[in-house]
Amino acid sequence: MDRLMSDKHRAVQRSVRDFCERELRPIAAEIDEEARFPWEVVEKMAALGYFGIQVPPSLGGAGLDSVSYAITIEEVSRVCGSMGLCIAVHNSVAVYPLMAFGSEAQKDRWVKPMARGEKIGAFCLTEPNAGSDAAAVTATAIAGDGYYTVNANKVFVTNGGVADVCLIFARTDPSAGRKGISVVVAERGTPGFVVGELENLCGMRANPVGSIRLNDCRVPADHLLGREGNGLLIGLAALDVGRIGIAAQAVGIAQAALEEAIQYAKQRRTFGVAIENHQAIQMMIAEMATQVEAARLMVYRAAELKDKRLPFTKESAMCKLFAAEAACRVTDAAVQIHGGYGYSKAYAVERYYRDARVTRIYEGTSEIHKLVIARSVLQEA
Amino acid sequence: MNPHIVVCIKAVVIKASRGRVVRTPDNVRLNPFDLPAIESALQLKAQCGGTVTVLSMGPPSSRIALAEALAMGADRAVLVCDPCLAGADTLATSTTLAAALRKLAPYELVLFGVRSSDSDTGQVGPQTAVGLDIPLVTGVHRMEPRDGGLRVERTMDLWVETFEVDFPAALTIRPEAARPRDTALGGLAQAFDQRKVELLTGADLDLAPERVGEAGSPTRVLSIKPVTHERRCRFLEGETAEVADQLMDHLIAKGLVD
Fold first, then answer.
1. Which pTM was predicted?
2. What is the average per-residue pLDDT within A228-248?
3. Which residue of A has its CA nearest to B72?
4. Are A272 and A374 contained in the same domain?
5. Residues of B in contact with A90 (CB under 8 A)
6. Which of A3, A9, A10, A43 to mutate to test the interface with B (most CBs of B within 10 A)?
7. Which has the minimum average pLDDT: A194-203, B20-29, B124-133?
8. Domain boundary among A204, A228, A252
9. A46 interaction partners in chain B (CB closer than 8 Å)
């Protein structure tokens, strides 16, 4: 990399940071506590282009690069993990596959309103018995008379409670194994499209994560994304991009925890001095700052490789693995530095601690990422 | 009436670590007091048409502030940038900006923030207006177009003054005048990827070398050091009513209430 950040990236960072500090910071604790999706801020984010970060202007998006995308997700997540999650998932695993694999008519129909934030997207792969084992999906989409009849039980759908456009991974050919899986796009409001109960989650509580069920839902045949049987290919391509977003989110949460820890260490006094003077605290702060910096560099590098149209699967898996693990360590240390107060809802670090935890689980667990990385590294050798 | 509105802006220093002012892209940003001036210009343009030019003098790192103004909606951005302009105080800066404004003429309105967040003099706006020999109203919090000019309001302590000014005129704009819009991501992409900040050098301005930069600056900043505020804490004791009385006595003694 020639430079860490261009002037454009700095300007994006400031713009998003200013907006989030003013609009999201005052409500971040409250929407977490109430598990409320803040439509009032979402509408403002939509007007500013946060829902079409990398969509070209011709389709109504902001037309930014992947590094700017990562910076945007990082900055939103630094203030509110749940909203970082909302826009990361919408932009990466919902909008991106529609742009990459959709026909012109499909882009017109879905990408345009999604880029303006008028429709929110969701990625529906996970089922009660299929997640890391993506090929195990049992949902079906059976073709006939110009429609797919879709039956699916999708769980842990990010944005599930508010999503209008859902990418459903289902078997179009139940006998074809991995190659029988396709993606069909189902719209909320179609008969048989049921939004289930929302999950009562440990963190990311302002995101309406829930289940979506399709019961004999008739989806027009032209809602097939790409070709029949290409579902896993589309899914993996989407997740390569999605991982950069989740990694950026983890960096944002870790950055927030680091800042809170530094501020607290300067105020809190024990044994007659501010605790920042204790070596035990300094060791923790040094570790935290280094983890955040390393994670951020890995995210920017993966994003830059993508912008340069170079292979980035390994790098995106590495940055997701490292950033998620770092976020958990850093938020844990931030709680430790706060002592008992860190375990109280009076301070933000407990929220960061809860929010960070899931970054090691969703869009591929840390363990799955190690398999992806190992496969890639061993093949290179 | 399609006025040409020029907003003079500054890329301010965010941090002066150890008392040193270093203008790097990481360490400068658009002066927050200029944002309401840019917003006022954009709102006036929305009302009566015209164009908005943003103008700045500074090192190359100032480009980012001008591009941010383009992203907000300005039509044109001009940076006056030349090593011979370095070390300028408010007088040399005003002389330079006035010369650049003559190059950008014709203009109807020149707007400034009331002050900058990093040097806080409030002098550049008024001095530039004097240099251009155009009427000036400072501390404007409201303006509306009228035929051939503006009707503007400014607050002086307990009085609101209303002026009618004819174009061309200069105003310094108070933060209350307009809440600056948020920059859309698409605006930033376009400003940085597709649009250019135009450059003017010292040679373009027809100014004698002794009037610009350090040579043209009768004032010098000798040193900068951070101000430290010492906080003291005193606990008042007794019944609530007694504590309230003690608190009032204390505040009155400090001259904070009367």
1. 0.91
2. 95
3. A15
4. yes
5. none
6. A10
7. B20-29
8. A228
9. none
Contacts with B217 (C-beta within 8 Å, 6 or more apart), sequence order = B87, B88, B89, B91, B92
Structure token digits, residue A171: 């078997």
Last residue of a domain, one of A200, A228, A256: A228
Measure CB to CB from residue A64 to each of B64, B68, B189 and give the nearest one.
B189
Query: Which sequence positions of A are flagged as catalytic?
Result: 363
Residues A261 and A366 in one domain: yes
Residues A263 and A364 reside in one and the same domain: yes
For B159-208, the pLDDT digits (tens) are 999 999 999 999 999 999 999 999 999 999 999 999 999 999 999 999 99
Answer yes or no: do A274 and A351 share one domain: yes
Residue B194, CA atoms < 13 Å, CB-side half-sphere: 12
Whether A2 shows a pLDDT value over 70: the answer reads no
A223 lies in the same domain as A272:
no
Same domain, A237 and A373: yes
CATH T-level fold of B4-211? Rossmann fold (3.40.50)
What stretches of B9-49 adopt beta strand conformation (E)?
A: 11-13, 28-30
Residue ranges per structural domain of chain B: 4-211
Contact residues on chain B for A63, CB-CB shorter than 8 A: 186, 189-190, 193
Q: Residue A116: what residue type? A: R
Q: Which percentage of chain A shows pLDDT scores above 70? A: 99
Please return the burial class of B26, using the count of CB atoms within 10 Å of its CB with bins 0-12, 13-18 and 19+. Answer: middle
pLDDT level of residue B23 (50, 70, 90 thresholds): confident
**Which residue type, as a one-letter code, is found at position A68?**
S
Take residue A136 and report the two structure tokens written for it.
């195990």
Question: What would the pLDDT profile of A151-176 be if each residue is shown by its tens digit?
Answer: 999 999 999 999 999 999 999 998 99
